[in-house]
Amino acid sequence: MSAEEQASPPAVSGLPSRSVRRRYAVMLITAAVVIGLDHLTKWLVSSHLSVGEQWPSQEAFVNIHLIHNSGAAFGILPQFSYLYLVVAAIVAGYIAFFGPSMGGGVWRLLALGCVLGGALSNGIDRLVNGYVVDFIDFHFWLFQIFNVADMGIVGGMLVVVFQILVEGWGVGTAERRR
Fold first, then answer.
1. How many CB atoms lie within 10 A of CB 128?
2. CA angle 19, 29, 134 (to 5 degrees)
3. Dmax over Cα atoms in the chain, in whole Å?
4. Residue 32 needs a FRET pair 20 to 30 A away by CA distance; which of 95, 107, 147, 167 works?
5. How far apart are CA 135 and CA 52, in angstroms?
6. Predicted confidence (pLDDT) per residue in 12-47, tens digit
7. What is the pLDDT of residues 48-71, one digit of tens each?
8. Could you read off the pLDDT of 96-143 as tens digits, one per residue?
9. Of the candidates 30, 119, 141, 111, which has an alpha carbon nearest to the alpha carbon of residue 72?
10. 10 vs 123: which has the higher pLDDT
11. Which helix (H) or strand (E) holds 153?
12. Alpha carbons 29 and 110: distance in angstroms, whole number
């Protein structure tokens, strides 16, 4: 049993322990921040630009270029829009259910919160609009236009993969020293 689990009082009346509630709180607050930032930026861009319009209009290092993406990442296979909604729901459910028990400390919880928030935010767009609003366009980048939710998903997954490769799945530093 870890020191954190030993310091926590036992679960009361079927509720999860205090440490599990904290882990959920970190993950869910992070997801809420990603969803909020993503939808705020999508609203700002959509209220100031028309679909296909860019700002600034000349080629710059980065442009705000509003598009509606009905496909998967980078506009791939737009005819499967609702399949992507199902995949987002499965990913979100898995992270919400198993995330706090995956170990890895606060960085993993923040990363999983970013992935959860990104999946839910883009899922909300697909459900409500039938497409995802994308607007960040780096001209030197090989990929297509993306949004804050996409950054949360990719950034979160990079952190999780890095931790798994470097530290091992769910193995904290205290357990490795033994």
1. 8
2. 145
3. 62
4. 167
5. 9
6. 455 557 788 899 999 999 999 999 999 999 999 999
7. 999 988 888 667 778 898 999 876
8. 888 888 777 899 999 999 999 999 999 999 889 988 999 998 877 666
9. 119
10. 123
11. helix 148-167
12. 9
The two tokens of residue 62 are 């980065």
Residues 16-26 as b or e (16 or more Cβ within 10 Å = b): eebbeebbbeb
Buried-exposed string 81-105: b where 16+ CB fall within 10 A, e elsewhere = beebbeebeebbeebbeebbebbbe
Beta-carbon contacts of 16 under 8 Å, excluding residues fewer than 6 positions away, are 24
Residues in the chain: 178
The structure's pTM equals 0.79
- Give the span between the Cα atoms of 90 and 98, in whole angstroms: 12
In whole angstroms, give the CA distance from residue 84 to residue 92. 12
**pLDDT for position 117:** 96
| Cα 148 from Cα 95, distance rounded (Å) | 19
Residue of 27, 35, 177, 169 lying closest to 112 (CA atoms):
27
| Arithmetic mean of pLDDT, 149-176 | 78
**Residue ranges of the domains in the chain?**
25-172
Catalytically annotated residues: 134, 150
